[in-house]
């Protein structure tokens, strides 16, 4: 593993770019506010979350031509593998105050979901099937 949100050297490490999300709170609890082009480095156009992933099931297995994303594990944990065609790195997401920024044509896979995992995905654009690269061999040709 190159980096995980619990490492002391948080931030950019090769493909792994962890954003520290500002936590506000008091004796009642904590809050993280995500704001387009402020706490997120792009305009926010789509939000979705992945939950209830069955044991042993992996997700992702695609890249995007232009979409930017921030992944936040708001509950539980999962492992994210990123691949730019030359380098493969993975990290564990397990903290609601850490976001994994994914930019450029990068293959992504999500593995090892805990039973309580809720993975929030913040995207720079609306869903567009034409932006997806769903074949790993096509991805390699594209970045090659």
TrEMBL record:
InterPro entries: QdtA_cupin_dom, RmlC-like_jellyroll, RmlC_Cupin_sf. It comes from the Bacteria. Residues 17-143 form the Sugar 3,4-ketoisomerase QdtA cupin domain. It holds the Pfam family FdtA. This is WxcM-like domain-containing protein. It comes from Spongiibacter thalassae.
């Amino acid at each position: 593993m190159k980096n995980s949100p619990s490492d002391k050297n948080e931030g950019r490490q090769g493909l792994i770019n962890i954003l520290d999300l500002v936590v506000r709170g008091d004796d009642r609890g904590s809050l993280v506010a995500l704001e387009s082009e402020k706490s997120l480095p792009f305009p926010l156009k789509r939000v979705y979350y992945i939950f209830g992933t069955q044991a042993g099931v992996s997700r992702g297995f695609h890249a995007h031509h232009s979409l930017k994303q921030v992944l936040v594990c708001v509950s539980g944990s999962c492992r994210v593998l990123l691949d730019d065609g030359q380098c493969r790195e993975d990290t564990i997401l397990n903290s609601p105050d850490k976001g994994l920024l994914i930019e450029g044509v990068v293959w992504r896979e999500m593995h090892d979901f805990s039973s309580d995992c809720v993975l929030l995905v913040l995207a720079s654009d609306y869903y567009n099937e034409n932006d997806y690269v769903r074949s790993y061999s096509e991805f390699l040709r594209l970045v090659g």
